[in-house]
Design goal:
Distance between the termini: 20 Å
InterPro entries: DNA-bd_dom_put_sf, MerR-type_HTH_dom
Oligomer: single chain
Helix content: 40-55%
Largest sheet: 2 strands, antiparallel
Order of helices and strands: EHHEHHEE
Strand content: 5-15%
GO molecular function: DNA binding
GO biological process, one term: regulation of DNA-templated transcription
Shape: elongated
Number of strands: 4
Mean pLDDT: 91
CATH class: Mainly Alpha
CATH topology: Multidrug-efflux Transporter Regulator, Chain: A, Domain 2
Protein name: HTH merR-type domain-containing protein
Number of domains: 1
Strand order of the largest sheet: 1-2
Domain HTH merR-type: 6-63
Radius of gyration: 13 Å
């Protein structure tokens, strides 16, 4: 299932300008459409955007947060080792 940017903004709680900046920085990768055509956001990329927003809200810098979010979603993890003895547990987002 794909979504439009408006749905992703609602899911993440971040302003559209922030979402688009993350796309421009290469942190998020919606499917390109054509010039003047809205981008499509596959479910996995929406999940990455939601987790990225949560990690940034918790104080993590955007680039490492995006890497963690992409890894968590790609491999279906619920925790990630950030360094020796430093594990980040990821709970499902609150509903």
């Amino acid at each position: 299932m794909t979504r439009g940017a408006k749905a992703v903004v609602e899911a993440t709680g971040v302003p559209r300008t922030t979402l688009m900046r993350w796309v421009e920085e290469g942190l998020l990768q919606p499917r390109p459409r054509g010039r003047g055509t809205p981008q499509e956001w596959p479910a996995a990329e929406v999940a990455i955007a939601v987790l990225l927003a949560r990690l940034v809200a918790a104080g993590m810098h955007t680039a490492p947060a995006a890497a963690v979010a992409r890894t968590v979603v790609a491999f279906g993890l619920d925790e990630v080792e950030l360094g020796q003895g430093l594990t980040l547990k990821i709970a499902p987002p609150p509903i």
